[in-house]
Amino acid sequence: MKMGSRWPLGGPPPAGLPHVVEIAIHAVEEELTALAEDSSAWRWTLTWLEGNPVLELDDGTVIRYDPSEDSATITQPSIVLDDEDDWI
C-alpha cells in the first residue's frame, strides 16, 4: 500500500510520481505564479486511488493520472461570477 503525503506549493513533489504528473504540477504552479495570487500557504495533497496518484491543491485544482495513456488531466475549480444579468 502506498501512503499519501502533503507538501507546499512550489516544493519538490514526492518521489515515485510519473513524469507526466510532475509536468502537470509544474504547469499549475507556473500559472498560479503568473496570476500573482497569494498562494504561499497552499499545499498539495497526494492520495493513491487504485495504485494511481491523485493530487489536489488547496484551491480545488485536481490532477489525475491515467496509466493506460500515460497522461495527466488537470481539472481546475469553476469560477462563479456574480453577474446581475444572469436572469436574461
Concise overview:
Helices cover 19% and strands 31% of the residues. The protein has 88 residues and is an alpha+beta fold.
The separation of the N and C termini measures 52 Å
For the sheet with most strands, the description reads: 5 strands, antiparallel
Shape category: globular
Uncertain segments are none
Going across the biggest sheet, name each strand in turn.
1-2-3-4-5
Number of helices: 1
Give the SSE string. Answer: EHEEEE
Q: What fraction strand?
A: 25-35%
For the residues shown, what is the average pLDDT? 89
Roughly how many Å is the radius of gyration? Answer: 15 Å
Please give the share of residues in helix: 10-25%
| Broad structural category | alpha+beta
For the record, the count of structural domains works out to 1
**Total beta strands:** 5
Organism: Cryobacterium cryoconiti
Protein name: Fe-S oxidoreductase
Description of the molecule:
The protein is α+β, with helices and mostly antiparallel strands. The chain has one domain. 19% of the residues lie in helices and 31% in strands. It has one helix at residues 19-35; strands spanning 5-8, 43-49, 52-57, 62-66, 71-75. It has a five-stranded antiparallel β-sheet, with helices on one face. The protein is globular. The mean pLDDT is 89.
